[in-house]
Amino acid sequence: MSERIVHCRLLKKDLPGLDRAPFRNELGQRLLREVSKEGWQQWVRDSVRLINTYKVDLVTPEGQKFMLKQCALYFGYEDGEMAQTAWTPPADGAKPGSQGSEGESR
User: Fold this and answer.
1) pLDDT along the chain (106 residues), means of 10
2) In terms of DSSP bridges, do strands 5-7 and 14-16 run parallel, antiparallel, or are they unpaired?
3) Count of domains in the chain?
């Protein structure tokens, strides 16, 4: 059986789609139709920052509602700004966790 290909709305290219809807609602169905496995994995990695920053309890309805909203914003299904996190990207050319190397030209 060949993989189902979708045009990923996050990565803007044709890639293998999800095997199943990640949620049992309309958002889950849209993600199934329009998001690739690679795009979904990117969300999963990035969502950890939100969970850690806001100490989201995914068992509670409030935590689930918060994360569904952030997911919809992340993939562009809703307008607005995502919640801020304490994480900042590394400086250009620096590896995560490093202070940069001496002698770099900027």
Assistant:
1) 91 98 98 98 97 96 98 97 84 57 40
2) antiparallel
3) 1
Q: Is residue 87 part of a domain?
A: no
- Rounded distance between C-alpha atoms, residue 66 and residue 21, angstroms: 19
Is residue 22, in this structure, part of any structural domain at all? Answer: yes
| DSSP conformation class of 13 | S
- Note the pLDDT tens digit of each residue in 89-99: 788 765 554 44
Q: Residue 5 — φ and ψ, nearest 5°?
A: -105, 135
Structural domain includes residue 98: no
- Residue recorded with tokens 């139709």: 33
| pTM of full prediction above 0.90 | no
Q: Read off the tokens for 35.
A: 């998001």
Give the model's pLDDT for residue 95: 56
What span, in angstroms and rounded, lies between the C-alpha atoms of 43 and 15? 15
The answer to whether residue 32 sits within a structural domain is: yes
**Domain that includes residue 32, residue range:** 5-74
